[in-house]
Write a structure and sequence with these properties.
5-stranded mixed barrel; elongated; 14% helix; Type Iii Antifreeze Protein Isoform Hplc 12; 21 strands
């Protein structure tokens, strides 16, 4: 056992930026044997904990005048590092795959979503992707990530999914059943094609003259199954019946006997005569009656 070399004081939490742990890292730099090597430092980003038993053994070995204050005394040494995160790798993959794939916007999902590469804090962080390939049928990519440029370089195999993106309509608020849709009710957001599905609304023309089949939550993707042609005439509602010929124009009030959409034929009862006619929906609450036979009689007849 070494001769006593002065009283030591535990440092508690220590951040290292070197390859070796010394006595001074644990007990303080003022003791005589402070520069003696205890062992290798942990890998960048990792830590090592010396508990009370390990500390007592080190104190005896290096002649440090130290006694534990409790059974919970310990020193934690963490190796400083700079980190390459999964988000950083995905961003670079997106940029480089855009030049290889026909789709210019891809959603990247790494096979290892928790990827994290720690390198020494003192090192110049230099990393690159090599051997990048993309299979558009399987929508998979592979590559090698090389960190460093010398004998200490590290090679990591990468793989994952690269899914094309499509702009889809997303409701900007909750929407009731039967609500008529317009472009102002949605925002267009890039969405992975597998999440969008085959029935997502991807074009503003798909919203024209449509209403919701059911109540929908805000921020939900709007799908073709969620919408139907807007009812411009509602069963039981009053409508304006109109008949036009080159010689005349007649209007009357009627009551719709069923729901109907633009261009659809609907039965309408004249509220004055209680006679019914076939009419074609021309707008909200508007129908056109063909001036022929019973239709003409029903439109003009009064009780």
């Amino acid at each position: 056992m070494a001769a006593p070399c002065g009283a030591g004081t535990l440092r508690g939490e220590v951040l290292l930026d070197k390859d070796m742990i010394t006595v001074g890292d644990i007990f303080g730099a003022s003791i005589a044997n402070a520069d003696k090597v205890v062992g290798p430092a942990p890998a960048p980003g990792r830590k090592v904990v010396y508990d009370v038993m390990a500390l007592s053994a080190l104190a005896r070995t290096f002649g440090v005048a130290w006694q534990p204050q409790s059974n919970y005394d310990q020193v934690t040494l963490t190796r400083a590092s700079q980190v390459i995160t999964a988000a950083m790798v995905k961003e670079r993959l997106e940029a480089e795959l855009a030049s290889k794939a026909s789709e210019k916007q891809l959603d990247i999902a790494l096979d290892n979503p928790n990827l994290e590469i720690n390198r020494p804090a003192s090192e110049k962080l230099d990393w690159r992707l090599v051997d990048l390939s993309y299979d558009p049928v399987r929508r998979r990519f592979s590559a090698s990530l090389i960190v460093g440029a010398d004998a200490h370089s590290e090679v990591i195999a990468l793989g994952g999914r690269a899914m094309p993106m499509v702009q889809v309509a997303v409701l900007n608020r909750a929407f009731p059943a039967g609500g008529t849709l317009s472009e102002g009710d949605v925002e267009w957001l890039p969405t992975p094609i597998d999440k969008a599905g085959a029935d997502a609304i991807t074009d503003a023309t798909q919203l024209q003259g449509m209403e919701t089949r059911r109540g929908l939550a805000g921020k939900s993707i709007l799908r073709l199954r969620d919408v139907t042609k807007a009812r411009l005439v509602v069963k039981g509602s009053l409508v304006t019946m109109k008949v036009e010929t080159p010689a005349m124009q007649i209007t009357a009030q009627g009551r719709a006997l069923s729901d109907a959409v633009m261009g659809e034929t609907v039965r309408v009862m004249n509220t004055q005569s209680n006679r019914t006619v076939d009419a074609v929906v021309t707008g909200a609450g508007q129908v056109s009656v063909t001036p022929a036979g019973d239709n003409h009689v029903a439109l003009n007849e009064k009780k």
